[in-house]
Write a structure and sequence with these properties.
The protein is of the alpha/beta class. The protein is built from 3 helices and 8 strands. Keywords: Lyase, Metal-binding.
Amino acid sequence: MDLKLSQCFISVDDHDKALAFYRDVLGLEVRGDVGFEGMRWVTVGSPLQPDVEIVLEPPAADPDASPADRLAMAQLLAKGMLRGVIFSTTDCDELFERVRASGADVVQEPEDQPYGLRDCAFRDPAGNLLRFTQKRPAG
């Protein structure tokens, strides 16, 4: 059986700000922009991974979510408590400088980790934690 990741989801509270970050700062390509029942989903992905997509969706993106559930999700998003993603890069330091220059919220500057990676972390405009990792040479 073949099994591969095809999509993951990140909640955002402002799709235009999210697009400015994911498209313009990170360089991901926009693959879709769909509205339905007053909500919007924007799909982005790396040109290097045409079969993997990140869907930027509203918090509580279920048309049947109660107002209380929508409020709870919006509050969790505002606190940065929802999950983000981990990207890999070939140059963590160069990527860090580019993302920092955009004004993104720095969580961790580039740092060598004992498990063989160099990584850094930011929050996207909605508060989601994004990590960027680079494999270090063995030894």
